[in-house]
Q: What sequence folds into this?
């Protein structure tokens, strides 16, 4: 049975050693249902959405952040302040999120990271409080942790390094880590975040109202 942890909003990410945990932001999508507007370049609080999402990961205590770019990668580099991030180009971004997840995990090889917190660029309602809760549930290389919203698994997710090869092998199309996590459901620690975050995706024009 999936374990559930309720970590308070003030959970201090510094309470655990986080240097071995990296952040991985998937930001390659082309926004097909948004008329071809790359999601990374949507404006939120006056800045590109990708810049905001990186700030969320850092505010949660993740010093190393890898960002997977695809659609309009050159424009993202030009317009967004991503200093200090490792920028990973995914030439296969049109194949879906799975290709970005594989590229991101591959970029962590040799970095010393033993776990990674994966987040999506198009969920501005998920802030550092939710990321910090997921990060605080990290234990070791075998950890699988997921934010939950009213008990339903969502993002961000933390993947211990022991799972990376399996996740990459299962990541196809737009599935990302979904299939792997479903197969390992009993190993996942769910961390309830519904009180501090809203897991809305920015997929269609109707969703643009979630931007500020």
A:
């Amino acid at each position: 049975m999936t374990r559930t942890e309720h970590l308070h909003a003030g959970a201090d990410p510094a309470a655990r050693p986080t240097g071995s945990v990296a952040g991985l932001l998937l930001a390659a999508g082309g926004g097909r249902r948004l008329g071809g507007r790359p999601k990374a370049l949507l404006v939120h609080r006056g800045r590109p959405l990708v810049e905001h999402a990186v700030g969320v990961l850092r505010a949660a205590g993740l010093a190393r952040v890898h960002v997977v770019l695809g659609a309009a990668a050159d424009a993202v580099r030009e317009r967004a302040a991503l200093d200090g991030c490792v920028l990973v180009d995914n030439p296969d971004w049109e194949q879906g999120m799975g290709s970005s997840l594989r590229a991101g995990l591959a970029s962590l090889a040799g970095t010393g990271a033993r776990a990674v917190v994966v987040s999506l660029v198009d969920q501005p309602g998920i802030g550092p409080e939710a990321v910090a809760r997921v990060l605080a549930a990290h234990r070791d290389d075998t950890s699988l942790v997921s934010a939950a919203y009213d008990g339903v698994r969502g993002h961000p997710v933390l993947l211990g390094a022991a799972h990376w090869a399996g996740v990459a092998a299962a990541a196809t199309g737009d599935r990302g880590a979904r299939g792997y996590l479903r197969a390992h459901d009993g190993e996942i620690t769910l961390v309830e975040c519904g009180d501090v975050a809203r897991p809305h995706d920015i997929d269609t024009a109707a969703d643009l109202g979630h931007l500020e």
About this structure: Strands lie at 3-5, 21-27, 43-44, 47-48, 65-69, 86-89, 115-120, 144-149, 152-160, 189-192. Helices lie at 49-59, 73-79, 97-107, 128-136, 164-170, 178-183.
